[in-house]
Amino acid sequence: MNARPNAWRSATSRLILIYGLLFAAWGLVLVGVIQWESARYLNTVVDQMLEQRMHYLVATDAQRLPATVDAASTIDPHGIMSVGLFDASGHAIAGNVARIPAELAVDGKVRLLTRGMPRPDRDATRVRARALATHLPDGRVLVIAKDTSTLDGLGTIVWRALLWALSLTIIPGLLGGFLLRRGPERRIRELQKATEPIRQGDLSKRLPVNGRGDELDVLAGIVNTMLGEIERLMNEVKGVCDNIAHDLRTPLTRLRARLYRAQQQLSGQPEAALVEASIVDIDAVLGRFRALLRVSELEDSHRNACFAEVDLGQVLQQVHEFYAPVAEDRGQPFALEVEPMTAVRGDAHLLFEALANLVGNAIKFTPNGGQVRLRARMDSRGPRVDILDSGPGIPSNERDAVTRRFYRGDNSRTTPGSGLGLSIVSAIVRLHGYALDIGDAPGGARITLYCYPVAPGEVPGTCLSRSVTAQVV
């Protein structure tokens, strides 16, 4: 429950990730459009330059054309512009083009040469080029080309700018997101810490509000309003139950006293048995009322202010001595096994009441001749008490319900009782912050009392999530 939340699953991290992905996608689209528009524009400019130069050379005198082509090649030392004149059979006459490229159609239209322009001065090094070739009136072929290194360089610059933009945006964004995430994470941890006593039953606690009015404050305010209403309703229900139990106890006690006097006066008469049965029923009702008031008393968390160090072994010895005669009358071997343990913090009388209740149930539901064991030892986190018996056990689907008030399972409906015994035990366990686990043992039932504070995420009282290995009886 109090585990640290996954930082990468927080809302802030997700927003930053979504923003980063959207920014990267939009950046790619934007750069792609810029590069496409720039390339289209520059290609148009290059095509116009090629067409203008072709027009100029075609208009040149046929006798002077080879010299003009050579001159055009000479004034281009960097090899950006390629010019070549070929005879009708494709042999080079003038210029710096070795041969007519196979992918260039001689139709007077500008073409993109992906394999580049073959030139003798480039040592087989080729760059992409845009070129056009046309037939002259005398049958010769004139080729003009311009490499696209400028265009490619522009694309490289644009993509590098995108990478720099992404780096300079995403990295600070991640750092800023990390800093922004720390505030909500701290608030979440505070809310988790505040919910722990609420989860353990203290409805008077409220979630902290820092006054900023943000989403977490709004959520905390809604939860606090709900907690206030739940606390009010629970107090009303609890007050009604306690008032009924308290108010009816006095007239029932008076009624019992009158019936007792009537029983004494009817001694030896047939009506005396009927009066005695009525007294037994009234005693059962009074016992239930006392148990209800006892549970309410134990649910008052302020009682733990008087806790002290308790020798658990001594309490277990007292429980064993108290129930040993009862087990002996039922022919049940009642063994006590206590290993050296550390002292626990709690109320010795309440712990005796809880353990006595558990042992009493084990003896009551174990058939005559069965066996009951009371064992205590150190667990990996503290003292642990196991009550094991050879009775029918508690079905797994009822183990969470048996600690509720007045709940009686199928195995106990025919057995005398009020259904409040385990409710009292659960209230004592919750008051101490301990945990109670109900499970199986070979040939019977096992109830384990963990006499140390529960870990974060575990619920005091009945804790069915613990992994407990059944011990051999």
Automatic annotation (TrEMBL):
Q: Where is the signal peptide?
A: none
Query: So where does this one cross the membrane?
Result: 16-36, 157-180
- What InterPro entries does the record tag this protein with? HAMP_dom, HATPase_C_sf, HATPase_dom, His_kinase_dom, HisK_dim/P_sf, Sig_transdc_His_kin-like_C, TCS_sensor_his_kinase
Q: Catalyses which reaction?
A: ATP + protein L-histidine = ADP + protein N-phospho-L-histidine
Q: Which PANTHER family match?
A: HISTIDINE KINASE, SENSOR HISTIDINE KINASE YKOH
The record's listing under SUPFAM superfamilies reads: ATPase domain of HSP90 chaperone/DNA topoisomerase II/histidine kinase, HAMP domain-like, Homodimeric domain of signal transducing histidine kinase
- Record's superkingdom? Bacteria
Keywords carried by this UniProt record? Kinase, Membrane, Phosphoprotein, Transferase, Transmembrane, Transmembrane helix, Two-component regulatory system
Under what name is this protein listed? histidine kinase
- Residues of the Histidine kinase domain: 243-456
Compartments annotated for it: namely: Membrane
Identify a single GO molecular function assigned to this protein. Answer: kinase activity
What Pfam families does the database record attribute to this sequence?
HAMP, HATPase_c
The answer on whether this UniProt entry bears the keyword Membrane reads yes
Residue intervals of the HAMP domain: 186-235
Mostly located where?
membrane
Question: Is Transmembrane helix tagged as a keyword?
Answer: yes
Its EC number(s): 2.7.13.3
